[in-house]
Amino acid sequence: MNPRRQVTEHLLRTYKSALIGFAGVFVVGVVIADIVAARVADPAPGIWMYVAIAFRYWVGIIAVIFISNNLRQFVAVGVTRRDFMAGATAVGVLASVAFAVFVPLGHGIEYAIHGGSGFSAATGFREFAATLVSCLASFVAGSAACAGIYRFGAWGGLALVIPALLPAAAATIFLTTDSDGQIAADHLSFPLALVVCLVATAAVAVLSHWELKDVTIRRSALG
Amino acid sequence: MFDDRSPIYQQIAESIKDDVLRGTLKEDDQVMSTNQYAAFFQINPATAAKGFAQLVEEGVLYKKRGIGMFVSPDARAKLRGQRQERFFTDVVDRMLDEARVIGVSVEEIKKHIDGGNR
Amino acid sequence: MISLRDLTVRYGATTAVDSISVDLAPGKIYGLLGRNGSGKTSLLSVLSAYRKPSSGSVTIDGSDPFENRELMRDIVFVRDALDAVEGDRAGTLLDLHARMRPSWDAELAAKLVATFELDLRKRVGALSRGQRSSLGVVIGLASRAPLTILDEVYLGMDAAARTAFYREMLADYLEHPRTIILSTHLIQEVADLLEEVVIIDRGRLVVHEDTDTFRSRGVAVTGPADVVTVFAEGRTVLAEQSLGRTRQVTLYGGLDADDRERAESAGLTLTPVGIQDLFVHLTSPEHNLEAVR
């Protein structure tokens, strides 16, 4: 079997339950908050989109865990760094897509049950695109930041954290949605904001690849 | 089992020769394979193989292809001959040297042997 | 064939492995011996594609193992720290190896787990030092990789567990011969299992030869000081000590029959030097290695 696929499957198997568990807690929390909101305010504010903004950061945390925890483990079972990166990136992309679907879906359901703020197909699509790009940006940023520290140690890596976090910063500035699923800031047009974030993501993906392609496998996460 | 005094393969060869001399291993008896020997004495099989190869070279053992190694029919006689030759130089002469140093006469030694103390 | 050519590993100003060239034929059990900090782990890390050398090269059957999918799959490197996710259960870790290693032997793994009395439900981070080492041994042996590298895997294992480890390693090697590199400084315990020894000290290669030859290299010569001094002239002296007019020197290089006869007729006593002592002498800080090389 292809080692990349094995990496992807193992990581999914390992972290699936934790992710689904977290998401479940979120959903329950939002439902409770929605019920409370409906009692105290009219019209009730939407809660989902406040909370859903967190998903994109989770993807960043996943990337950090992959590099600090799993890279070493996979090289130890005879997988190349390249194959590990490919397999792990597949998980990052899958998680990003899943959240990108989950966010507008949750928003739509909340709207349907509860009224709340306006929701339309166009809003949903914008939320999908914004979440997908933000998640990818966050994954790549987490990966590059962690890889820098893994490779160059805490101090050397710190210098690289700033460029590494650029895609996440760009997504936060240009693609943060408000409670109605609207892009909060209007510095750029939405398509341009997407493009800027994707370019930053691609550039930092190159940085991350460069950091990891021949990295020394250390005994612990912090070198 | 083995010590640092000489290469282990030589010690292996010596111990098998001892077995042949004492009759523990008889003519045409099969000896342990190198792997069995290695596992039994916890040594590297290459070392065991080297000891066995030396014995084959000396004619103490012979190989049957695909079956294993066996004690040569004349091994015991040959080893006896060799040890007998060495007996006087290695054992008797040394004993006499020691006797001279500590002042034991040959007569006393003879008497000791004749006395049937053994 | 594993070939190291001028292999050098540097960490900043420190040279951990200093221009080592050595060839290791396949299918043997090697002992990589060296004191702590002699560069063993750095050398093995390059061999197992955990790190790139600073200069020089490693090839296995002509190819560089670094990021080489086929070769890396065939190398297992178990180091004392055990490269695992601390929160994983021991059983989960073995399952991962079982899935990823084409030559994994589940039966052997189960047998070793029983031998070492490992509790697979325990999390890796919760294992004692000795159990952690045992888990490393299970991984190293059950992977049955064509190149098996065990780097000081016995840490924290008691004598009984170490004996079990040596016994199981030899038994499995006899059934499935492969290249095993065992790094250690407990030489006496494993010497009989090693076909060849490679000794490094301060990053440099000191000795590479078959164990039996190495074993017969050391001899201690004891006798009247002046006689010993004359006898030792022109030979490599690893150590010396005096008590009154008696002097003892440890010589390296083995004596032939003539030497022995000459020594004995001069009234000198020759005693063999144990392999562990020989190693200690060869790698002692005050000793000048260049004289041996």
Automatic annotation (TrEMBL), chain A:
InterPro entries: TAT_signal_bac_arc. Keywords: Membrane, Transmembrane, Transmembrane helix. It comes from the Bacteria. The keyword Kinase does not apply. The chain crosses the membrane at residues 20-41, 47-67, 88-109, 129-150, 157-176, 188-210. This is Uncharacterized protein. It comes from Winogradskya consettensis.
Automatic annotation (TrEMBL), chain B:
It holds the Pfam family GntR. InterPro entries: Tscrpt_reg_HTH_GntR, WH-like_DNA-bd_sf, WH_DNA-bd_sf. PROSITE patterns: HTH_GNTR. Keywords: DNA-binding, Transcription, Transcription regulation. SMART domains: HTH_GNTR. Residues 6-74 form the HTH gntR-type domain. This is GntR family transcriptional regulator.
TrEMBL record, chain C:
Signal peptide: none annotated. One of its GO terms (molecular function) is ATP binding. The keyword rRNA-binding does not apply. Keywords: ATP-binding, Nucleotide-binding. Residues 2-227 form the ABC transporter domain. It comes from the Bacteria. InterPro entries: AAA+_ATPase, ABC_transporter-like_ATP-bd, P-loop_NTPase. PROSITE patterns: ABC_TRANSPORTER_2. SUPFAM superfamilies: P-loop containing nucleoside triphosphate hydrolases. This is ABC transporter. It comes from Winogradskya consettensis.
